[in-house]
Amino acid sequence: MLKFSFKYQNLLKVKEKYEDAIKGKMNKAQSKLQDEKKRLKELESQKDDCEKHISLIVQNGTNIRDLKTYDSFLIGLKRKINEQIQVIEKCKHEVNKYKQELMKAAMEKKTFEKLKEKEKEKFYYMEKKEEENFVDQLVTFQNFKSN
Asked: Structure pTM?
């Protein structure tokens, strides 16, 4: 009895490894995106705290020099927030790129898996036919021998 052997098995393994590698890259990109979003929330929280503090010192009365210092700090935070938003957009773009790549890799792998399955079915069909032919020949031989 012959054993089934898929002629493109090595290529299928390469496709599987490639898909796994892309999954790993996508997971890293998604993790980085979440970290960057967390950083943005921290910056926005700092900005809110600073604005509350500024309104509090304005109500209690302060000098212009202190107010300018807080205002400069607030402007810096707003700049960092805008930069962080751009970083998040880059991360989203990277995640989407890996999603597309993963879909393509999964489709390629699935194509080879379907081909393997079809070849396996064909192999077992041919094996069954050969077995049936052998049985037919055996029966014919026994009938010939008994006559």
From this structure: 0.74
